[in-house]
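REQUEST ID: PR-0412
SUBMITTED BY: lab tech R.K.
PRIORITY: routine
TASK: structure prediction, single protein chain
INPUT:
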Amino acid sequence: MAGPIYFAIGDVHGEADKLRQLHAAILDRIAFEGHAAKIVHLGDYVDRGPDSRGVVDAVMAIEARFNRDPAIEVVSLMGNHEQMMLDAYDAASAEDAGLWWAQGGAETADSYAGGVGKGDTGWREKVPKEHVSWMRRLPGVLHDRERRLVFVHAGIEPARFPDEDQRTYLWTRSDRFFLQWQWPDREELKGLKVIHGHTPKSFDPEIYPHRINVDTGAVFGGPLTAVMLKEGARPEFLRAT
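STATUS: complete
OUTPUT:
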């Protein structure tokens, strides 16, 4: 029996309208295919864009909608921007949260406060506790060992995978990952394909034998992209603009 059809969604960064549009397109395609499916969010839901709160609400809503559904599973992974937001949330002072604030956190605080320029040092009180708890539970990686597929926000460290630090999954932009000819000859890597975001190179996805990058710069004017992976078929892409 064929495995599930995967739909992996790249970096959202506060583009809630695009995410809702893409969710609708994916669900339409699942209905058309009539086959079990997994929807995988690859992280970076928050920061930079206009409606980070709306994105988190949308992801949590689709998770709840298909909770325990035998036909559709939703998996949401951690991105480096969720980790930065949690680090800022746990920081001892406003100054300690400065890195996140400058990397799009100000826009996230505004979205929770209700409008542009409304986020301030009291932003933590505006973030629902269930949003924080949800972020803390996000896993770093989804590994389908049978189909040799790895879903992760940023990438892997080929010399150590799968026994590596979560920080690699969230942050790596190493050529050791991007350039397949630098991968070591390890059994764990044979036939492996990594589905990731984090590093937008253009408004089109990158497709290589060892990786597919679906961060197509949604927050920079590009589409929000999902790759569809169906056994025995070439990757297909769904986009929301």
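NOTES: The helical segments are 16-33, 52-65, 80-89, 98-113, 129-137, 166-171, 175-178.
REVIEWED BY: pending
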